[in-house]
Amino acid sequence: MTTLINCQELQREEIESLEMIFGSAWSKYDENSETYRLALERNSEQRIELQVTFIDGYPIHNPPKYSIFAPWLKGTKRQKLMNELENVIKQYNNEPVVYRLAQTIYDFLDEKIIFLNDEQHDNLTKDKLNDTCEVDYVKYSKRLSVPQLSPEEKYSCPEIFTDEPNEEDRASVFQAHCARIEHECQVQMVLDELKKHKKIATAKHNVYAYRVNTETGKIINECNDDGENRAGEWVLEPLVFNNLNNIMVVVTRWHRDYSIHMGAGRFTAYKQCCAEIIKKFLK
């Protein structure tokens, strides 16, 4: 009985979080079911609706039931997305997972391959690829002889922009930091640089999220809760929602009064701090 109550409480918290993150894009299918739908798109022609049913035992014992509605998405591309969603379900077993499913769909929409239609893709035969991708092997061999720098040698710590602390809440103080990054190796550089400040190094939480383009064109979305369960998702959400790339945001939290419990309000604070700093940073 206790486990069932815990599942219901986790479901309630997750639904509230999704409502706050996605607004009107997140809605209940009908009042007589526990099925919700989430409309995700990068443009009007490529829209994917994620349909999720919160079944008994989710998330502790069972994964949610889910499906996608996207008439334009067919064949191997559709199967690719379904495989990626299933991998997320397996990877985050026993955890609230709907936001991660949505993030996976956004990543899929951001991939350049979906802008090729099936006919164009099928016509790219091996011979045509060879014709259009001529390589100067002499120049190529010369490039191979040049010593390659490691990412840590190639990139340095970027400039870090720090916002004013948010001290409106009696329980905690939040402060956001933002930097432009070109490679994942710079994530740790930014953290190390921030933690040179004793106050930041000894803070209760340094929650961070980032989005970065790889050399292959893939967008990597990552976040770290730093002990504040699910807080990283709230910092990542404004980056994903605004389709911002090569950006890292860290939100530092200090406790002011341990006797005051912030509850779910702390997640809103993380999200607001992130949204405010990227707005100022990108001006």
TrEMBL record:
SMART domains in the cross-refs: RWD
Family, as annotated: Belongs to the IMPACT family.
Full protein name: RWD domain-containing protein
Location in the cell: Cytoplasm
GO CC term (a single one): cytoplasm
Record keywords: Cytoplasm, Repressor, Stress response, Translation regulation
UniProt domain RWD: residue ranges: 13-112
InterPro entries with a match to the protein in the record: Impact, Impact_N, Impact_N_sf, Ribosomal_Su5_D2-typ_SF, RWD_dom, UBQ-conjugating_enzyme/RWD
GO BP terms, alphabetized: GCN2-mediated signaling; regulation of translational initiation
Pfam families: Impact_N, RWD
Broad class of the protein's primary localization: cytoplasm
